[in-house]
């Protein structure tokens, strides 16, 4: 009989959260086995080189943060370029700069000064009588007025979330800057860039010297798991090898972990239609949003522009937002009141689960950007091992 290989942690999910945890655990002398159901590491930040271009397979990822510690941390694993995200929005035959700034307002109303823009917006807001915005629609209207809302927010948001703007939380729109200067930088953060050579290398470096199994399903493994009197689990991997571990870091969907016993949480998913085109430059920008309801996709990403690529060909992805259902990849938690309340039930269950830690966008059911996910992973490390 062969002895089961012994680990301190089973890390479920080889994305940014799981890999950060495993990397920090290893530094502290703990052994992790990292498993992922996909056939590759890096979760949704996975990038793959095609035609010399790093393709963001699961959608555009732009690293941005105001936290110097987080910026320094991620820079250990890759060198970042000076990419600044400046998407443009297409509405019918009109084209606007994002986020909402003087370039947008100038184009919308043929005005020049901040005072003129402010007057135009104030005039539109005055007609609304919204004192305390209760949902995304009221928030957007009372921030930007009717024109910006109708042309640049309403259609895009309803496609992205598959819900009426009245049924969405206001915070989603507060992510975007709104400013009265001519500045198309999508983020307000101090630090921003794309890792030269893609994101996968970051996770590869984090996982160096750590046992990783891809195409390994946690739920199949769990069926074989037996807990002994000391609290150690022994389970069987898909190739029959036995492993044992004391604790689990779980970065999958928290509701699924508990067999959705309180009912399923909602997620949004994205379907990509990716094409290689025999031309150098298709749209002149990495990100072009299509804000009208009638265009079925939300945006087109032209991957080469994240790294200022000069390859002879180009690769574009059209993004179609869909409701998540079992069997497809979840991308975004839908953090409305109903789901948040349901999540709280699962979170209480999770807290009672002594030997399992839940992390990441899916495990903590939070619309984390990469910097927040990384910060949450480091918090989790501190909690687990002490500072
Ligand atoms: N949004 C919008 N119009 C746009 C881009 C974004 O109304 O052209 C809104 C929309 O509600 C979206 C939110 O802003 O869900 C956040 O956008 P962000 O670009 O941060 O989304 P992500 O990149 O995370 O998908």
From TrEMBL:
Q: What is this protein called?
A: UDP-galactopyranose mutase
The family classification in the record reads: Belongs to the UDP-galactopyranose/dTDP-fucopyranose mutase family.
Q: Which organism is it from?
A: Shuttleworthella satelles DSM 14600
Keyword vocabulary terms for this entry:
FAD, Flavoprotein, Isomerase
The UniProt entry's coiled-coil ranges are none
UDP-galactopyranose mutase C-terminal domain segment(s):
151-367
Which cofactor is recorded for it?
A: FAD
- GO terms for cellular component: cytosol
- What are its E.C. numbers? 5.4.99.9
GO MF terms listed in the record are:
flavin adenine dinucleotide binding; UDP-galactopyranose mutase activity
Q: Which domain of life is it from?
A: Bacteria
Q: Which InterPro entries match?
A: UDP-GALP_mutase, UDP-GalPyranose_mutase_C
